[in-house]
Amino acid sequence: MGEATFILAIQQIASGLVMGSMYALMSIGMMLILGIMTVINMAHGEFYMLGGYVSYFLMTQMGLPYLVSLPASMAVVGGIGVVSEKLTIRPLVGRPWFTTFLTTFGLSMILRDGAQIIWGVDPREIVSPFSHKRVVLGPVFLTQHRIFVFAAGVVVISLLYLFIKKHKVGMAMRAIVRDREASALMGINLNAMNSFTFALGAGTAALAGALLGAIFNVLPSMGELPLVKGFAVVIMGGMGNVQGILFSGLILGVVESLSASFISLGLSDAIAFAILIIILLFKPTGLFGKKI
Amino acid sequence: MTMNRRKLFFLSGLILVLVLLPWVFQAAYTRHILVMAVIYTFSATGLNVIFGFAGQTAFGLPAFFALGAYISSLLALKLGFPFGLCLLGTMVLSAGFGFIIGYPCLQLRGIYFGITTMAFAQILYYIVSNWVELTRGPMGLVGIPPASFGLGDHFQFVFNGELRYYYLVLFASLLTLFFLARLMDTRLGRGFVAIRENQDLSASIGIHPFWVKMIAFMLACMITGMGGSFYAHFVKFVSPIEFQWYFIGLTFIMVITGGIGTIWGPFIGGAIFTVLPEVFRAVETYRNILVGAVLILIVIFLPEGVMGKLAQWGKNRNLPHGEKEHA
Question: Number of Cβ pairs closer than 8 Å across A and B?
């Protein structure tokens, strides 16, 4: 391995960590929705996509600065999440879990094609104030924006971790994962918690979309890959484990980024699933999961 | 296979209608849609075996339709196999891939099983899109020969044209359903249902859940792959687009609308939901939105499907006569 290869590897690891933090951000919402509501949210990628679009339009139409558009798009998409939950998940309480898989799948089709009809298929570019400033860290070049994305991802995930651990609502969430009926008896409002969880998931997905929308472009179909990779991370990380998700997301990002430059660019997207399958074969509870 | 008279009457009527349909709709375009409708029923029937009968939510299964189409095309194009061997080879190889994919996936249950099969479906998609030397990647495979049966060069019967192909696929799908109906009356078929109802309990009465599920999964892959083979030799073009997600949703709609775990339900659902998007094609841009909305509405309001409703109706009608409904 020559020096050039080594530097390339370091560079790829750095960009892999940036992507990985976003995979983790997507996955935490999916994990919360899966754990608390027993719902596989197939529309999660569309919330990610909507986050990108809302941020784009808040900036171009209303002239908001990028940093303001991030929380604003989280709020808007969180609201869309609440409405979606009422329409596609609430009516199916008590029915088998695959029913909500199918309704959210339908929702995903509606949202994606709706976006395509309203906004067209042309990619939109979010201009982040940090996009064009380069930072040199030893042998590694990164744009300021990528560092911002990584930092934002890690900070939000840490806040979520603290929220789930310490806050009363977070504790209620953990209680529901343990035992739905018992927590309802203790006075936890399950419907409200479902709405809140879905809004939280949609909001974090939107944040990821708005952050990555400034690196890649915003497209109606942009949510598909983050969705499937998000699931891979959820399973890799093991259920109910925020740190596990963060590490799995970072591992996936790095492995993918390394394989893109050292194995094959086209197949790097398939790596996530190959890792997933290997993990499931040897450690079905996930890398960081505990035996149930 | 015991049947009451009402069922026999219903089935013979249905088959008669199916045989006569291409004479009602004689335009090449409508006959094309009829052929596609029957071809997609394989996908619905395949999913019904693993999801409807054995209760395993194999979200990735619809990818076997595309896989079957690719296998069959490659057998014809690269190895020069005649159609009969392509079909047979697709069935064998689809079941083989089913084993390879089923082995790790079936270690898991429920949601995790479902997601993992989907991960495999994605891997297949990436391999097909990227292995350009074999599959020509996104350009797809062209020039797939039409279906024909015969001995040597002189006695070939070519299924060219929509009408001949319609009867070919109709015959094949009815045969599949007949086989499936017989299978569900055997120990193995009841094993599928036992596992759907309660896996742990069925294990306690001597059913081996892993292998029974594996057989169901391989059978499902085989039936779905068959549909892909028929598709490839009819449309004569396959591309990675056949792996699209839309198709997963659509296949589940077919099975649920028709009636989960009934023999005929997915066939009917498959036919309806091939024709319906074609009807919606007039509003092409809104097609996915309409299909998505129909999916949501059906899951919420019609959980037992068309056949489930019919069966209920049949049961209620039969009750006063004291006849016993045979499920």
Answer: 119
- What does the DSSP assignment read for chain A? --HHHHHHHHHHHHHHHHHHHHHHHHHHHHHHHHHHH----TTHHHHHHHHHHHHHHHHHTT---HHHHHHHHHHHHHHHHHHHHHHHTGGGTTS-HHHHHHHHHHHHHHHHHHHHHHH-SS-B----TTTT-EEEETTEEEEHHHHHHHHHHHHHHHHHHHHHHHSHHHHHHHHHHH-HHHHHHTT--HHHHHHHHHHHHHHHHHHHHHHHTTTS-B-TTTTHHHHHHHHHHHHHH-TT-HHHHHHHHHHHHHHHHHHHHHT-TTTHHHHHHHHHHHHHHH-TT-SS----
Contact A280 B112 (CB under 8 A): yes
DSSP structural state of residue B49: I
Band of residue B320 on the pLDDT scale cut at 50, 70, 90: very low
- Please say whether the beta carbons of B66 and B243 come within 8 A: yes
Q: What is the pLDDT of residues B276-312, one digit of tens each?
A: 777 777 677 787 888 888 888 888 887 776 666 666 6
Distance from CA of A89 to the nearest CA of B (A): 9
In a domain, B285, yes or no: no
pTM for the full predicted model: 0.83
Residue of B59, B101, B108, B116 to mutate, testing the A interface (most A Cβ within 10 Å of its Cβ):
B116
Q: Answer yes or no: do A117 and B285 touch at CB < 8 A.
A: yes
Question: What is the ipTM for the molecules in this complex?
Answer: 0.82
What is the domain range of residue B194?
29-243
Instruction: Look at the alpha carbons of B64, B66, B72, B78 in this order and tell me if their dihedral is positive or negative.
Output: negative
Q: Which residues of A touch B (CB under 8 A)?
A: 34, 38, 40, 87-88, 91-92, 95, 97-99, 101-103, 105-110, 112-114, 116-117, 224, 228, 231-232, 235, 264, 266-267, 269-270, 272-274, 276-277, 280-281, 284
Domain annotation covers residue B111: yes
User: Between B265-280 and B287-301, two packed helices, what is the crossing angle to 10 degrees?
Assistant: 150
Q: Which residue has 């892999």 as its token pair?
A: A16
Which residue of chain B comes nearest to A267, CA vs CA?
B126
Residue B175 domain flag: yes
Grouping H, G, I as helix, E, B as strand and the rest as coil, residue B158 is strand
On whether residue B77 sits in a domain, the answer given is yes
Structural domain count, chain B: 1
Mutation site for B-interface testing, chosen from A41, A86, A107, A109 by largest number of B Cβ within 10 Å: A109
CA proximity to B86, closest of B244, B245, B249, B234: B234
- Which of B47, B103, B112 to substitute to test the interface with A, most A CBs within 10 Å? B112
Average pLDDT of the residues in A84-108? 88
